[in-house]
Design a protein that fits this description.
three-stranded antiparallel β-sheet; DNA-binding; two-stranded antiparallel sheet; homodimer
DNA sequence: CGTTCATATAGACGGACTTCGATCTAGGCG
DNA sequence: CGCCTAGATCGAAGTCCGTCTATATGAACG
């Protein structure tokens, strides 16, 4: 989950030193753990194949797509597509529902919006 | 640049076959080149250190920060910080302005918003 | 000019990531 | 039961990435 609380990720830590720039006080970064959590979700999106997968699922009239629909247009092997879909599911950006023999994937719009809001908080 | 034109990234390509799912027609993914361009920008954000850098610069009262302000709180070497800042500048998410001996980095809010809008187009 | 300080670049090393082919799991059907 | 098909998992190969140390660039200043 990205920035799950309403807590601002950043806090100002007042420090007595102004080393190289008086106007800019010492800054406290968000915790490593928090940054790693956010980065892990962005990493899921940071791959051309997964961008294409997200776009294809979004473009699907039913809002869903099964692996067999996605393998062929991308020209990649079925295990590779499964692998990428799993990464997106693990990141919380995709939901998987198995019906019969097929596995159907759909976007999690809330998660995607939350991730987008992280980059454009002031919109 | 992300989705620079107003062209929707996705197009439907009608195909005569409904292989495994009649409701879902064959989908045409966005072009590899387009997807790679987008992925390259997301890849710049998909690292915990760079998330921390972006947050620290955003938290800076002046909206800018120089390398010396950023190196210490993160506990990484100065070349490593310079390296990450370069990646963010190359991705277009940060601007660099050298004044005297110091290099000042600031967020490019437009680019960040555009990237966020890519994930949450319907907000 | 030569020194010092802030930053950038180069090269190296270890780990992570994308992709593949091969195999395993499991539902549908004769 | 036995086969077929959709999908997941495994293990390997090649590439990319983050970090470091060492070094180069370049501005300020005596």
């Amino acid at each position: 989950m990205v920035n799950d609380g309403s807590v601002p990720i950043i806090a100002q830590m007042p420090s007595a030193e102004d080393v190289c720039s008086p106007p800019t006080a010492a800054l406290a970064p968000p915790s490593r753990a928090e940054a790693e959590r956010v980065a892990r979700v962005f990493k899921a999106v940071a791959d051309p194949t997964r961008i294409q997968l997200l776009a294809m699922i979004e473009a699907s009239p039913s809002g869903e797509a099964c692996v067999c629909d996605l393998t062929e247009p991308l020209g990649l092997s079925q295990p590779t597509i499964s692998h990428h879909l799993k990464i997106l599911v693990d990141a919380g950006l995709l939901t998987r529902s198995k019906r019969g023999t097929w596995a159907w994937y759909a976007l999690d719009h809330d998660r995607l919006s939350a991730l987008g809001a992280f980059l454009a908080p002031a919109r």
